[in-house]
């Protein structure tokens, strides 16, 4: 891509494509790249070394940590909090208003102050597959993974793998992103081992008990 098509702040090491719209009231961390036709509203906070891909919309007040990658055309509305190291796939929507209407009860067009947003928290290292919808009041745990096209209506535990509409827990994933297998059950805790990198992590027994036998290739 020609350097002439980019606006590059060398002092701050922030790259913003000329077609992107970034509010002067937004805070952008060093090393972050904002690509074609992305829109960053006022009072949004983006951490360091993020990648904001083509057509992404980030509403005012959204907070994003460091090293976050957001793929094309995803929409993050006020009330969304994204911690560090998170991956958000293409076309992901965050529906913070659970009772949306175009008009107020008096029949007037709603303004910003008329909307009721509910917080959504995406914790460190989590991944959200393309085309997913995340509803308000949902927390997605550390290193959790949401399968593509899922509709998430409830919290997802750390390392949880969910998919479907509504999304349900079908397994657990390592921080490397691959599915883990049962290693050992001890009281209220369950130790898992990654099928690829062999790293181990612990989950609570209450989450293990939610898994249906057909979802796992190993005996419980």
Automatic annotation (TrEMBL):
Gene Ontology MF term list: transferase activity
UniProt entry tagged with the keyword Iron: no
Entry-linked Gene3D superfamilies: Hexapeptide repeat proteins
UniProt keyword list: Repeat, Transferase
Designated name of the protein: Acetyltransferase
Organism annotation: Candidatus Curtissbacteria bacterium RIFCSPLOWO2_01_FULL_42_50
């Amino acid at each position: 891509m020609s350097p002439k098509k980019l606006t590059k702040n060398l002092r701050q090491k922030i790259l913003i494509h000329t077609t992107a719209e970034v509010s002067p009231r937004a805070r952008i961390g060093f090393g972050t790249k904002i690509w074609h036709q992305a829109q960053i509203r006022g009072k949004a906070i983006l951490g360091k070394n993020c990648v904001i891909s083509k057509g992404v919309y980030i509403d005012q007040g959204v907070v994003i940590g460091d090293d976050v990658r957001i793929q094309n055309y995803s929409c993050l509305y006020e009330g969304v909090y994204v911690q560090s190291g998170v991956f958000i796939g293409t076309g992901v929507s965050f529906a913070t208003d659970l009772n949306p209407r175009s008009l107020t009860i008096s029949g007037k067009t709603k303004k910003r102050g008329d909307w009721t947003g509910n917080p959504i928290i995406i914790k460190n290292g989590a991944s959200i597959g393309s085309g997913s919808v995340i509803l308000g009041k949902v927390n997605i745990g550390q290193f959790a993974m949401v399968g593509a096209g899922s509709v998430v209506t409830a919290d997802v535990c750390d390392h949880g793998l969910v998919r479907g509409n509504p999304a349900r827990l079908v397994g657990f994933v390592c921080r490397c992103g691959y599915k883990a297998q049962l290693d050992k059950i001890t009281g209220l805790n369950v130790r898992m081992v990654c099928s690829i990198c062999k790293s181990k992590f612990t989950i609570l027994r209450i989450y293990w008990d939610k898994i249906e036998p057909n979802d796992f290739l190993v005996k419980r």
